Amino acid sequence: MHELSIAHNIVTIASDAAAEAGVDRISAVHLRIGALAGVVADALRFSFAIAAEGTPLAGAELIIEEVPVVVFCPDCNAEVTLTNPRLFRCPRCDRPCGQIVHGRELELVALETP
Predict the structure, then answer these.
(1) How many helices (H) and strands (E) does the chain have?
(2) Is 8 assigned a ligand-binding role in the annotation?
(3) SS3 state of residue 91
(4) Disulfide: which of 28, 31, 88, 114 matches 61 by Cβ 3.0-4.6 Å?
């Protein structure tokens, strides 16, 4: 379960940011996670709660925005959201698309304080 190491990294980054800002506690952490990031959101939430114990993030809420897979279709000359991220085919014209625009994100977007 690599989600635990990801959770530890999130806690480290957020704790460092809190210390730098002179904040004693973080109440929420906002993440963006792409469908292709290979992260199971529920496992990350569970791991985050464990990793946050005894830190300024203890009890903080982990808010995850799931990012769909978006590819660029050269035939349609457009960015399209894939309905099935396992098939890299344009849902408009059914042509193969390999240029991923979104979907691999794993970003810490914001921290909230009480």
Answers:
(1) 2, 6
(2) no
(3) coil
(4) 28
Q: What is the pLDDT of residues 91-107, one digit of tens each?
A: 999 999 989 999 999 99
3-state secondary structure of 35: coil
Amino acid found at 97: C
Q: What is the pTM of this model?
A: 0.87
- CA of residue 56 relative to chain centroid, distance: 21
Q: Which residues of 50-87 are buried (b: 16+ CB within 10 A; e: fewer)?
A: ebbeebbbeebebebeebebbbebeeeeeebebeebee
Place of tokens 């978006």: 70
**Digit-coded pLDDT (tens) for 57-80:** 999 999 999 999 999 999 999 999
CA 101 to chain centre: 15
Is residue 97 part of an annotated ligand binding site?
no
C-alpha 93/C-alpha 3 separation (Å) is: 36
Q: Would you call 9 helix, strand, or coil by DSSP?
A: helix
All domains of the chain, ordered by start, with CATH?
Answer: 3-68+103-112 (3.30.2320.50)
